[in-house]
Amino acid sequence: xxxxxxxxxxxxxxxxxxxxxxxxxxxxxxxxxxxxxxxxxxxxxxxxxxxxxxxxxxxxxxxxxxxxxxxxxxxxxxxxxx
Length: 82
Known about the structure:
Layout: E1 14-18, E2 23-26, E3 50-53, E4 58-62
Antiparallel strand pairs: 1-4, 2-3
């Protein structure tokens, strides 16, 4: 996936409560109206969401700038300017 194909959905991470054993679909394209989760808006873009299962119930910060090197988790990339 090229970062140029991705839309920046926000300038800060989304604080999310994950539930152990639940499956989540993180929006990787930035087009979803249900950020940080996928709503199918990627259809036809060639981009796919990141599907993951929560290993434990916990609070996490999911990336909304879509530039993270550790998808779906925020790595602070939204703070970098290029």
